[in-house]
Amino acid sequence: MGNIQLQGVTKSFGETTVIPSIDLEIADGEFVVFVGPSGCGKSTLLRLIAGLEDISGGKIVIDGKDASDSPPAKRGLAMVFQSYALYPHMSVYKNIAFPLKMAGMESPAIDKKVRDAAQVLNLTDYLERRPGQLSGGQRQRVAIGRAIVREPAAFLFDEPLSNLDAALRVGMRLEISELHQRLKTTMIYVTHDQVEAMTMADKIVVLNKGNIAQVGTPLELYHHPRNLFVAGFIGSPK
Ligand code: ADP
Ligand code: MG
Predict the structure, then answer these.
(1) I need a labelling partner for 63 at 20 to 30 A (CA). Which of 127, 132, 133, 143 fits?
(2) Which pLDDT tens digit goes with each residue over 141-199?
(3) How far is the CA of 193 from the centre of ligand 2 (A)?
(4) CA 187 / ligand 1 centre spacing (Å)
(5) Can you give the pLDDT at residue 235?
(6) What ligand 1 atom has the least distance to the C-alpha of 45?
(7) Cα 23 from Cα 26, distance rounded (Å)
(8) Atom of ligand 1 nearest to the CA of 47
(9) 238 pLDDT higher than 50
(10) What is the reported pLDDT for 70?
């Protein structure tokens, strides 16, 4: 579970082609980072995988099944939105329980899942609070908790830490890496931050104008950038 293949995936908005054609295989359990400058198509690619946007051509295969036309809920993936996507009027407990309630799960089963997720994320003491009564880092953990309870085949993160201050960002980066080691679930993480890419990824996908400039481990990209774009983005210390 958690193998994702993009086969000649394209995306246009009207006349504008944002993703000319992408081939990519993400292995089960891999931590893959999509990195590139603003506007290069990172969010669009993630949204295509999630099913929040329709592909214009090609194929998306998830765990051996053609998911190109599947609605988001059928893909078994969980998108982690920035923490401001929490429901402000609901407790932490209810925020995390929400997707399970929507899916029609019974309360006792929901309760177990919410408490297990809270334990993993160090939120047990905060379940009755509202998002406004939490720190930025705690709010981000609630957003992750809401994804965890669904036991997805993969987690999709779109710049989840960009709202946090620099110090908190470093801590959350470690927390997400630790979560990946614990759950061993596929994670796709979008960022424009080279340091995040270098420190978190098993595999980095560098995007430039909707094309893959290079795919490789952080060390491969650092030592053997294929071109000046990759070198400028990853290879050279800033
Ligand atoms: P990134 O996340 O790397 O900053 P995006 O995927 O958000 O980039 O955007 C890539 C390109 O696609 C940009 O030029 C953006 O303007 C365009 N784009 C994204 N979404 C839409 C949309 N719904 N309609 C038209 N153009 C879009
Ligand atoms: Mg984006």
Answers:
(1) 143
(2) 999 999 999 999 999 999 988 888 888 889 889 999 999 999 999 999 999 999 999 99
(3) 12
(4) 22
(5) 63
(6) 6
(7) 10
(8) 6
(9) no
(10) 97
What residue's CA is closest to ligand 1, atom 26?
13
Give 43 Cα–ligand 1 centroid separation in angstroms. Answer: 7
d(CA 64, CA 53): 21
Q: Answer for the pair 176, 200: CB distance below 8 angstroms, yes or no.
A: yes
What ligand has the least distance to the C-alpha of 36? 1
Pocket test for ligand 1, best of 19, 35, 44 (most atoms within 8 A of CB): 44
Q: Give the strand pairing for 16-26 and 4-13.
A: antiparallel
Partnered with residue 12 across adjacent β-strands are 17
- The band of 83, judged by pLDDT with boundaries at 50, 70 and 90, is low
Q: What is the ipTM of this complex?
A: 0.98
Give the sheet arrangement for strand 16-26, strand by strand.
Answer: 16-26, 4-13, 57-62, 65-66
User: 54: Cβ below 6 Å to ligand 1?
Assistant: no
Lowest mean pLDDT among 82-86, 107-111, 194-198: 82-86
Q: Is 191 in the pocket of ligand 1 (CB under 6 A)?
A: no
Token pair of 145 as six digits: 């908790």
Using the atom order of ligand 1, give the atom closest to the CA of residue 190: 2
Q: Does 19 sit in the ligand 1 pocket, CB within 6 Å?
A: no
Outline where the chain has alpha helix (H). Answer: 42-50, 92-102, 107-120, 136-148, 166-183, 194-200, 218-223, 228-230
Instruction: Please give the order of strands across the beta sheet that includes 211-216.
Output: 77-80, 154-158, 186-191, 31-35, 203-208, 211-216
